[in-house]
Amino acid sequence: MKKSLLSALLALPLLAHADGLPDMGDISQEMISPQMERQIGEQSMFQIRADKKYMDDPEITDYLNRLGARLVANSPEPGQAFEFFAINDNAINAFALPGGFVGVNTGLIQLSQSESELASVLSHEISHVTQHHYARMVSGQRYDSLAALATLAVAILAARNSPETANAAIVGAQAGTIQRQLNFTRTHEKEADRIGLGILEKSGFDTRAMPSFFERMQKATQLVEGNTPSYLRTHPITHERIADVDDRVQQIPYHLVPDSLDFQLMRARLIAQQKQSQEAVTYFDSALGNKKFGNPVAQRYGLVLALLRNNQPKRATQEFALLHKQAPRNATIETLAGQIKRLDKQDGEIIAFYRTALKNFPQHRALTYDYAEILLQDQRYDEAVKLLDEKILQNGNDPKLYELQARAYAALGRHQEEHHMLAYNYILHGNLFGAIEQLELAKKSGNDYYQLSTIETELKQYREIAEAYRKKQ
After folding, report:
1. pTM
2. Is 125 a catalytic residue?
3. Which candidate in 37, 57, 125, 189 is catalytic?
4. Alpha carbon 376 to chain centroid distance?
């Protein structure tokens, strides 16, 4: 596992309150370090990945992280680690957690009419992280600052699904204090606007997208704003904020910025996924027939996805042949090419295709997942293990890689490694007791000394965490 995952697991004893909030001692007068913020964010991500609304779509995830990385490179803290992810929710929302974790609702992506608009929101969220706004909201108070920071993160997460749950989370720990601190967010919002605008400009996006999108979001959310507790409206979009950003934008020379193909592909992908399958086919047929709106390459990509969902593989293959002729070299379209090839079940050709595709797009996780699946289906288990070992070294926080690795080890009869990988998969989903069970099975399933030593160390740590949790019940 990568160091970041290990540090998160070692920090898990902090999650020992009965209400799920950290118990971190009395450090009320200390500043919260970036490392502490990262731990809080990692622990929050355990909850998010276990949430049914967490969007486990590698194409959407990769796109958000590519776009986010471009923006982070032009932020005040370009070395700060960030992770961007999607929430399958039509509500217009995006949020940042301490330590560099940024969630974006699919509703906000769909509302964005240009890539610059989406980038303006991500820039704003990135600024909340680089300016350490959460830590600044709770530092220096007469209570446990780290616990309050975690309470705030839990409350914001809860507010996404249920205002009542959010209220309970706040009441559970320093309700009045958290509310008073959140009252300061107007200053933080203005700072995030100002710095986010600078990030947007340096990254080559259209800065006019920020005030125009904020105004559209304000109109789109007016009808539902009353459903969220006032102290959890962490991004109050006021006319004053919009005017302030617009004034700043007027000082910046205007230049037209075209959208990337990836942005258009992801919007089409969401439409293909979220509409009923036949409705999606009709939508994209109409878009391509009228030629009045949208990118034709992205629209045909959406049509192929919709046809596959609607169990029309023959027409999907025909439409993809047209798409491949139109499309430039692109990782997302190459991934779809592999899925189309798999319909013909020509295993030898498919293996060669994925080897070449991964050489061309080595960081594209959708290709990695699909290639690993093909290797497993073709009983090339050693090749699958080698591939997944390499990818886990690059990204040790990806639970899907551990799941695939466990399947490869199971097929090879290497059950100690199988259960060890499943333990990592479970812990990344916040399932502590499931991870302990898998480590216990791993301990009984082999006699490799090195593996056993690692397993016993981790098992001891996890049991201590579980015992601390029981005592707090």
Report:
1. 0.86
2. yes
3. 125
4. 26
